[in-house]
Amino acid sequence: MRIGALEAGGTKMVCAVGDETGAIFERESFPTLTPDETLPVLTGWFAERGVEALGIGAFGPTGVDPASATFGDILETPKVAWRGCHLRQAFVDALGVPVGYDTDVNVACLGEATFGDSKGLGDLVYVTIGTGVGAGVILGGRLLHGMLHPEAGHMLVTRVAGDNGPCHCPSHACCLEGMAAGPSLQERWGKPAVELADKPEVWEIEADYLAQMCANLVLVYSPRRIILGGGVMHQEQLYPLVRKKTVDYLGGYITAPELADIDSYIVAPSLNDNQGAMGALELGRRALLAEA
Ligand code: ADP
Ligand code: ZN
After folding, report:
1. Contact 108, 57 (CB under 8 A)
2. Reduced to 3 states, what is the DSSP secondary structure of residue 117?
């Protein structure tokens, strides 16, 4: 089976061709310009490669309900040129093959759940902490959508004592993305996050926000594992700090065996940054099966 995978991001579009085993044969990135400029390049790339199906993981907010008129559309994004873009439909029209569509983070979650160390867990949250914060959720083996799709990256958090940094979110006074994504680290400390590696106070505060999130995710979704990925999590010292603070925030209230082994509960991604592309392959495979 020859399947296409598109990771549609706000700064770049990553196209890949692979198969149902998660093998990736070829990959190429294109800058995200305007839909008029970028979409023909992407549809042409996949058309030339003769894919039988395509899976798309898209930046949000985006329509993920197949029953809705906005399925596959980019919605109210700050990237104005993309607002209202019929992203999925462009590929359906150009390629004439089944096209699976979901959020970028749901697709990464699917990649880990299908091909990664979390295979078979069935209840999984995948969070990326990068330019923004986004969370993908699988419950009972199904990708969670609901009314729109989870926006757990903007969950409201309590300001950490001693943190005077601004909230880098236009909508919220103190939300996780605004306090803990890469740009907010830069604003709080005056340097890019990557240059702050040797400052323990930076990571204590960062881990506190991420632990508030993890505790809330445990309380709300009851996942069997939480995967933390994205550029900021390259600071590996964060993992033990986040684990400890999450346990502290939960205060002994939840006594599941999974949580007792916290090192295996809050983990890094296991697919070497291929989780998005591999999840998109699985989404493409599912779309093909559904239309067969
Ligand atoms: P995006 O979220 O745009 O898809 P990334 O997940 O790579 O991309 O996240 C980019 C953000 O992560 C930037 O704000 C950057 O400062 C931060 N970042 C990237 N690498 C590191 C690193 N090694 N340590 C800390 N922060 C990093
Ligand atoms: Zn916010």
Report:
1. yes
2. coil
| Ligand 1 in reach of 12 Cβ (< 6 A) | no
Ligand closest to CA 78: 2
Closest CA to 283 of 30, 35, 57: 57
DSSP code, position 90: H
Dihedral over Cα of 238, 242, 257, 106: its sign: negative
d(CA 128, CA 108): 9
Whether the predicted pLDDT of 230 surpasses 90: yes
**180 alpha carbon – ligand 2 mean position (Å):** 10
Q: What is the mean pLDDT of residues 109-132?
A: 97
DSSP state of 22: S
Q: How far is the CA of 43 from the centre of ligand 2 (A)?
A: 33
The pLDDT of residue 292 is above 90: no
Q: What is the mean pLDDT of residues 109-116?
A: 98
Name the strand (E) or helix (H) holding 209: helix 200-221
Nearest atom, ligand 1, residue 11 CA: 3
Q: What is the CA radius of gyration of the chain?
A: 19
Which of 119, 123, 114 is closest to 285 using CA atoms?
Answer: 114
CB 167 within 8 A of CB 175: yes
Model confidence pTM above 0.70? yes
C-alpha torsion sign, points 68, 177, 7, 9 = positive
**The one-letter amino acid at 32:** T
Characterize the bridge pairing of strands 225-229 and 124-129: parallel
Strand order in the sheet with 24-31: 24-31, 12-18, 3-8, 53-58, 99-103
CA distance 68 to 70: 5
Note the ligand closest to the C-alpha atom of 173: 2
Can you tell me the distance from the alpha carbon of 227 to that of 118, in angstroms, rounded to the nearest whole number? 9
